[in-house]
Amino acid sequence: MSDTTISPNMSLILPTPGQEPGPQYAADQNQDLLILDGHNHSPGSGVAITPAGMDISTNLNFQNNSPYNVYSVVFSMPAPTSSLTTLYTNTQSGGGLVDLFFNDGAGNVIALTKAGTVNATIASLPGESYAGGTFTWKQGAGSTTPANFDIGSITIRPNTPATTNGVVLGPPSSISSLYNVQLPIVPSVTSIMQLDPSGNMLATLGVDNSTIVISSNTLVVPAVLPNSAAITESMLAPRATGQTVGIGGVAVSPSTGTYNSTNTSSAPSATQVTTSLVTLTTTGRPVMLMLQPTTGNNQSYVAKLLSTGGAFGSLYFLIYDGVATTTIQSVLFGQPTNGDLYYPPSFFSCLDNPRAAGTYTYSFGASVSVNGEVEFLNVQLVAYEI
Questions:
Q1: Do residue 19 and residue 115 come from a single domain?
Q2: Contact 311/383 with Cβ under 8 angstroms?
Q3: Which of 77, 119, 207, 360 is the most exposed place for a label (fewest CB within 10 A)?
Q4: pLDDT value at residue 311
Q5: 90 and 20 assigned to the same domain
Q6: Residue 68 forms beta bridges with which residues?
Q7: Is the pLDDT of residue 224 over 80?
Q8: Sign of CA dihedral 159, 164, 165, 169
Q9: Are 183 and 201 in contact (CB under 8 A)?
Q10: Are 247 and 337 contained in the same domain?
């Protein structure tokens, strides 16, 4: 039988009781004590220490070494929020979710997460920089070429604290394709802005106060063109005609055909031809009103017919403003003692004095004496702003 055995974990010499001689036993005991004195629980130097055998009751010093093969790190609270270069978890100001924080060497508290997501406000975007109140974006880190943006509308605000005022720049809602709009070069003189079909903004029409003039904040056309040629009639825009016209148009009413009105009352009576109305829009200048023969008719007149035996009669030409019987012109034509008076339509005209710019409706009529009769044959009312 052997007088010693060897232990499995630290290779200690184990004497067999009653077998190993005294001097050798003492030497082996001394050797074993030296091994025990220098053991560190590494493989071959003792049994590895399990987590259950560790009691870490103070900060653990890794002596500038890194832990590795760490599956995860679980933080606890309260955390050392005032320590420099510390990674920890804590709640955001005001409570709420627990987020991840880092204190840098200058004592700045940096929230790495916020409200359930990565705190993007702390991250530097590729090519982004900030200095002097201005953000600058380049095409990636290290690039000197400005970057493009593909975004929706942009709100531009003045550099005023807490302002809610701003200008929203955005595309039209009806846009159906992708296109560019290029800003113009700043002109040397005040110019008129233009936009060509390619999306280029131009400022080539300079206000030189000769060919292009702005007077009292109004763009005006000079009386003489750049080539010193006078403006001729052919250069003017055509004038619209019709029963209802806009600014610059000539209003012409429908024809009266044969229109009769007899006064059977005991007093002079006025007749308004409401079937021959005209409507035009004005700028505030006077309006010329006149009667004319219906186009294409070879017989036209305004007649005052007296009943047989009439002592005298009178004929008044009337112009009405609107469809209501508000007379703006009344002119006496003739007082025959008996018989008929015939006048050409062009004999009747008047001027409506300047009034506020707007849209007006005119009509005409006549007033005859007792038992008198007025007749319009193929007559039209013409109105235009002069």
A1: no
A2: no
A3: 77
A4: 45
A5: no
A6: none
A7: no
A8: positive
A9: yes
A10: yes
